[in-house]
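In the design runs reported in the main text, the only information available to the sequence generator was the tokenized backbone. The following block is the verbatim input for one such run; it is reproduced so that readers can re-run the procedure and compare outputs position by position.
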């Protein structure tokens, strides 16, 4: 990277080679573990069919508008989050690092879940988990201990975990076009076909319809519960990968002729469709399980989070004719979905470090993946890994990301007053035109709701703790996560730029004529 004064617009930045390349990569980031193991359980617990209402409201009032906001910042200021924010308004660099550090935290544990999926993919061939799938998962496989800081690494987890990081490193080092885009162009269609196959198989199992009834039967009373709305908003944020700085980075690799808003609508629609499809597949399968055990679906346990994928599903697979094939395809899908998401996070982190410190692409890929790999192994492949993972996830996704979205919308709309410029930018490059309602949504509706939501969550975490875990443990892994992200963001933005910090940055000159007209 040079520090010359050559016009920045002429800068050679890698790009996606087509809109399809960008859209597939953005779908790859969005469709992940969150769609498969988070959505079905959250929807079921939060009102079933009635949950679709808060879910749609969250998608339309916050999800798509903030996705557009991420895209507009990335495409206009053409850099990974910290530099893009800095080019927009210097002090917002810290927000960029806050989002990137939050993504970094997520990557460190997300990799562990992909590693579990990789192990289970192999176990599925001969149903290695046996009859007691819970005992196998927490006992034999993860060797879960007490909430303590264990340094006993479990090799069965650590080995696939290191392999995941090596694979991530290779893709990021290859770059946007030859690495990330290529992986997505192959993996996303493959995932679509594999998952569709699973859902069709699930729908033909006896009892499938009972599962779907349990899933879709609306509990209208749930709509009066604030927690249900909170669940809908956090699901949308995590699932669309928004307010993490990741979509800012992805959009920065778009060419001048980008049609950002239309791509955004395609991505959002694809992500939600996949989510609903996952809900149908998972509940059809659970209907079969209830049918085998002659109980109601509502009497089943273990319908959320890792337990759903790694305990309940193996148990169903045991009872299913041709279960091994189903298991292989299911865990294979988890790997594909998770891998295309984690490479998006790592690209965001590695590109930010590369720009700030003036490193080469390979150099920053090796540095960042190396640090992530070491932390992943030390924190999440030990006997205390599952608990730590659950606690970090709770704080990162319910506190960290909500805080990020609030700060982001308030700074852009109210403090630095960039929303009109960004709106015109989007409209100058896109066919789907964004009206002023967009500014009302990102400036008022979304932040107002997010503040209420964050307040409620903080009160409950402070008063009730989490899952009965000891306070010191929550301080360390829960609140500690937030403190770590804030401190790291402040420190990283205080370090002087070693890469190009072009204050005279010119957004696309031809677009700008329209924007400032
Ligand atoms: N959206 C991904 C999922 O649903 C997770 C993710 C979060 C990816 C944040 C990138 C950034 O699993």
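Verbatim output:
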């Amino acid at each position: 990277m040079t520090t010359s004064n050559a016009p920045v617009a002429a800068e050679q930045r890698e790009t996606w080679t087509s809109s399809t390349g960008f859209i597939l990569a953005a779908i790859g980031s969005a469709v992940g573990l969150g769609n498969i193991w988070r959505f079905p359980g959250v929807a079921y617990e939060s009102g079933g069919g009635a949950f679709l209402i808060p879910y749609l409201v969250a998608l339309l009032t916050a999800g798509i508008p903030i996705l557009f906001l991420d895209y507009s910042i990335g495409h206009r200021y053409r850099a990974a989050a910290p530099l893009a924010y800095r080019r927009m308004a210097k002090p917002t660099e810290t927000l960029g690092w806050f989002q990137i550090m939050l993504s970094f935290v997520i990557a460190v544990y997300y990799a562990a879940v992909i590693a579990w999926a990789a192990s289970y993919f192999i176990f599925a061939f001969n149903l290695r988990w046996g009859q007691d799938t819970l005992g196998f998962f927490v006992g034999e496989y993860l060797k879960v201990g007490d909430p303590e800081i264990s340094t006993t690494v479990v090799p069965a987890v650590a080995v696939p975990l290191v392999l995941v990081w090596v694979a991530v490193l290779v893709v990021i080092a290859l770059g946007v076009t030859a690495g990330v885009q290529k992986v997505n162009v192959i993996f996303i269609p493959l995932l679509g076909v594999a998952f569709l196959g699973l859902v069709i198989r699930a729908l033909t199992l006896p009892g499938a319809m009972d599962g779907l009834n349990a899933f879709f039967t609306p509990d209208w009373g749930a709509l009066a519960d604030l927690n249900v709305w909170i669940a809908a908003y956090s699901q949308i944020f995590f699932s669309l990968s928004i307010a993490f700085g990741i979509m800012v980075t992805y959009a920065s690799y778009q060419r001048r002729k980008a049609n950002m808003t239309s791509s955004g609508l395609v991505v959002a629609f694809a992500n939600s469709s996949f989510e609903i499809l996952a809900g149908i597949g998972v509940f059809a399968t659970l209907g079969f399980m209830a049918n085998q055990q002659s109980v109601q679906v509502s009497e089943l346990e273990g319908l959320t989070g890792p337990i759903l994928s790694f305990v309940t599903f193996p148990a169903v697979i045991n009872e299913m004719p041709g279960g091994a094939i189903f298991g292989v395809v299911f865990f294979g899908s988890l790997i594909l979905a998770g891998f295309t998401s984690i490479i998006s996070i790592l690209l965001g982190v590695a590109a930010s470090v590369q720009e700030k410190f003036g490193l080469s692409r390979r150099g920053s890929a090796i540095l960042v993946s190396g640090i992530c790999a070491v932390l992943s192994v030390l924190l999440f492949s030990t006997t205390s890994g599952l608990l730590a993972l659950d606690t970090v996830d709770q704080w990162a996704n319910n506190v960290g990301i909500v805080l990020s979205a609030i700060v982001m919308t308030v700074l852009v709309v109210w403090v630095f007053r960039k929303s009109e410029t960004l709106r015109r930018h989007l409209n100058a490059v896109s066919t789907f035109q964004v009206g002023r309602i967009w500014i009302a949504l990102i400036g008022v509706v979304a932040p107002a709701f997010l503040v209420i939501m964050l307040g409620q969550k903080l009160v409950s975490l402070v008063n009730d703790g989490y899952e009965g875990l000891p306070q010191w443990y929550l301080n360390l892994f829960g609140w500690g996560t937030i403190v770590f992200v804030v401190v790291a963001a402040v420190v990283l933005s205080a370090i002087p730029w070693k890469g190009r910090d072009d204050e005279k940055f010119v957004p696309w000159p031809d677009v700008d004529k329209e924007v400032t007209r």
